[in-house]
Fold FimV N-terminal domain-containing protein.
Amino acid sequence: MKKIITAIACSLCLLMPLFGHSLSAGKLTQLSVINQPFEAKIALKNIGELDESTIKVGLADQASFDKIGTERKFILTKLKFKTVIQGGSGYILITSHKPIQDSFLDFVIDVKWPSGRMIKPYTALIQTQ
């Protein structure tokens, strides 16, 4: 009986990649400087057949911030998130309309796709010119 259970478990592990994407978020690249509207990119990895319409991204809710232990400052609600897919690779574009005067932003993203969800914290260090 134990051998049968082990065989089934191993078989399911081998089939798991067929059932869903293991989408992940990589490094944050800061594109703006202090006193400019915020702009940054977060690399997306293992996109597979997903596209911009199937990857939903935004600022995480208060409960997620609390769980991670990061303060959800009001300025973070001004950030806009957009998924961009180009030639099989992709990234999350994060922007703001108003200039950011803080030297860093701690925030948590919430990424959802048809077969999964990811909550991930980031710190953007905003350089002076």
Q: What stands out?
A: The chain is about 20% helix and 45% strand. The chain has one domain: 20-125.
